[in-house]
Design brief:
By secondary structure, this protein is mostly helical. The protein has 16 helices and three strands. Helix content is 57%, strand content 3%. The protein has a three-stranded antiparallel sheet.
């Protein structure tokens, strides 16, 4: 039920968009009219990027061009690698990513803000984000940064840049699907933040930085990591029902459940549940998946809440052996596609976003000199 005070802007339509659409009652998500279930089954992340930015699936030559542009733009300038190296010594990956995205503005060769320049900037941001995340992970573990390969797509290149090994094709495809699923989601908090910044005509990097910053919290992108912590705390599938009951009895939230828009299964969660199961079996460790299933059954029984996109992603990333603090940066890697598409859409038909507030503070009163304040 919408909050009558308007808190959280629930139910408020704050922008028109052609990029994506959610039907929260039916559990449907569309990117430019294409059902997410079809995209998860057939589309690559590169095709999805083209779709979000051009609102049509790419032709074969457009797809080759997208792939080539993303590859060409993915190499990091040495000064950016140096920045990531120095941040990796003292701070976490989200702070590093946010800072690196902001700093990348200084290295962008386009000094104008035309629609064409903004499209180029968008592709640079999408190409560099996974490379920043992989480079951070390599450098903080004492390994050397790895240059992206010319023959791999974004998903496989990320896994390669992280480990130095060419990934198994099925694993690369599973990760590709995760990127497709996370690429956009209407006016979520981080996308809204990006559009608010863009609506002031701040530049593409400023708006993308605002979006990355907003993704960080546990009520948004940080939820995947919080789910992983929760699964660790639960320990085993058998302990899940009791843990959930206690948690809900204490009026605490179970991470990875509930959603502002979906009132049924999030269509992305069903795809991710299957990927989590397959990867768990492939890597011989199904405990994350098995525990998740028991948590989900218990939450459904106790509170009738559905899992959101982040719930099974924690099991997917755990099966892949990715460090938990990279989960939110990986969300950013995928969502950079949606953010930049929304920022461009905002520029194309802009009006400053400036809502009202309801004042609930003290009534007008007289100035009190310092000596008479008690
Ligand atoms: C996603 C989320 C922030 C949406 O928040 P919201 O639309 O403001 O919904 P509310 O927090 O007002 O929740 C509405 C009701 O459902 C309950 N609820 C919502 N999510 C819950 C959860 N994860 N665990 C337990 N109860 C939950 C609330 O306690 C509230 O119950 P009440 O009416 O009995 O007080 C919220 O569901 C949440 O915090 N989930 C956990 C974090 C998470 O997974 N985030 C990732 C989102 S993709």
């Amino acid at each position: 039920m919408a909050d009558a005070t308007g808190k959280g802007l629930e139910g408020v339509v704050a922008a028109q968009t052609k990029i994506s659409d959610v039907d929260g009652r039916k559990g449907k998500l569309f990117y430019a009219g294409y059902d997410i279930a079809d995209l998860a089954a057939h589309a690559t992340f590169e095709e999805t990027i083209h779709l979000l930015h051009h609102l049509e699936l790419p032709t074969a030559s457009q797809l080759s061009e997208t792939v080539a542009t993303l590859r060409a733009e993915s190499t990091l300038d040495p000064s950016l690698v140096e920045l990531v190296a120095s941040l990796a010594e003292r701070t976490g990956p989200m702070t590093t990513l946010r800072t690196a995205v902001s700093a990348a503005a200084a290295l962008d060769p386009d000094d104008q803000q035309s629609p064409e320049a903004n499209l180029r900037k968008a592709y640079r941001l999408m190409a560099k984000t996974p490379q920043i995340v992989a480079t951070y992970q390599r450098l903080r573990t004492g390994a050397d940064a790895i240059e992206p390969r010319d023959d791999l797509g974004v998903a496989a290149n990320f896994l390669y840049a992280l480990t130095g090994k060419q990934p198994d094709p099925q694993v690369a495809r599973d990760f590709d699907v995760v990127l497709v699923l996370y690429a956009d989601h209407t006016l979520n908090a981080s996308t809204f933040a990006g559009r608010v910044a863009a609506a002031t005509l701040a530049d593409m990097y400023a708006a993308a930085t605002a979006a990355v910053a907003t993704l960080q919290g546990p009520l948004h992108g940080g939820a995947i990591e919080a789910v992983r912590e929760m699964l660790e705390e639960i320990g085993s599938p058998e302990q899940a029902p009791g843990w959930v009951r206690e948690r809900l009895a204490a009026k605490q939230k179970v991470m990875g459940f509930g959603h502002r828009v979906y009132k049924t299964w999030d269509p992305r969660a069903t795809v991710l549940r299957d990927i989590a199961e397959r990867l768990g079996r492939q890597f011989g460790d199904t405990r994350w998946y098995d525990t998740s299933i028991r948590v989900q059954e218990a939450v459904m029984e106790e509170k009738r809440l559905y899992p959101n996109v982040d719930f099974y992603t924690a099991s997917v990333y755990s099966a892949l052996g990715l460090p938990p603090d990279l989960y939110t940066p990986l969300f950013a890697t995928a969502r950079m596609a949606g953010w930049t598409a929304h920022i461009r859409e905002q520029y194309a038909d802009n009006r400053l976003i400036r809502p009202d507030s309801e004042y609930v503070g003290p009534a007008p009163r007289s100035w009190k000199p310092l000596e008479s304040r008690g």
